[in-house]
Amino acid sequence: MQNTVKKAIFPVAGLGTRFLPATKSIPKEIMTLVDRPLIQYAVDEAHAAGIEEFIFVTSRGKGALEDHFDRAPELEATLERKGKTGLLEALRSTNLDSGAIATVRQRQALGLGHAVWCARHLIGDEPFAVLLPDDVIAADTPCLRQMAEAHAETGGNMMAAMEVAPDQASSYGILDVPLGMSPTLPVTGMVEKPAPGTQPSNLAVIGRYILTPRVMHHLGEIAPGAGGEIQLTDAIAREIEVTGNVYGYRFRGERFDCGSKAGFLRATLAFGLARDDLGDALEDYMYQLIAQRRAAE
Ligand code: UTP
Questions:
Q1: Ligand 1 proximity of 132 Cβ (cutoff 6 Å)
Q2: How far does residue 250's CA lie from ligand 1's centre (Å)?
Q3: Which of 165, 185, 243, 269 has the fewest C-beta atoms lying within 10 Å of its C-beta?
Q4: Using the 8-state DSSP alphabet, how is residue 17 labeled?
Q5: In the predicted model, is pLDDT for residue 137 greater than 80?
Q6: 65 Cβ inside 6 Å of ligand 1
Q7: Is residue 45 within 8 Å of residue 88, measured between CB atoms?
Q8: Contact yes or no for 10/244 (Cβ under 8 A)
Q9: 58 lines ligand 1 (CB under 6 A)
Q10: Are strands 53-58 and 7-11 parallel, antiparallel or unpaired?
């Protein structure tokens, strides 16, 4: 794979209000699915796509996110002394090299687009990926890698897209794309949260992007959109108008919306069931719980 995308932005400066009070003192992105924090799923996915520079856009109280990828010498020494090699390996797999992570601060939560724009000086004149850690994607080939492979053919800008039921479309940005089965589709327009029945397709944008520096430039120029926030989709919409060099990528895999409680619970069950060491016992327990609920009805 000829991957030209080496930098990824992880916007992690949001307030995470949907998980209050949990997120009063811990970042949403450090919440764990089984035993790994959400941010780690995103960083591992980026790594698998050939990303070498990991840029976190952070805010007050998000220090745990950086610490998670740092060395933990005391912990490592203890595990080594006790011969706990499996745990030691799991711990070391979280270490990122010195200089691989950079952080920039978003001083106020002015929206996803603004968060991405905060990283402009670290991106410079290169294409870059954006991964939203609260979208967790289970896939045989990690989603960003699938996109990077497709992007090596198309260049330009790319957004991960998935099919949604018609009654769900009004919760997403929906792509205007030609009908077809190809995974890579040229985008001619995009509608943010369309009114029921007006969606141009059933393809919704989710939190994985590969973008050109031009989109960063648009972010610096556009006015705040919905909710007074600077929207990433507005900057991409401008790029559709100006160059038309924007693609939707229908990835293979299942996406979990871990920014919502229902999505987070589903992901916890799915990832738990998929684990060799936990799956069978969890499945038994789920059957037992369901039987108890049915009996009580
Ligand atoms: P969300 O839309 O889920 O917002 O952001 P949020 O603040 O995290 O959560 P709620 O809606 O209050 O519960 C999607 C991603 O964009 C980041 C978030 O950290 C999350 O990873 N984000 C959002 C920022 O970095 N800055 C912002 O101003 C807004």
A1: yes
A2: 23
A3: 165
A4: G
A5: yes
A6: no
A7: no
A8: no
A9: no
A10: parallel
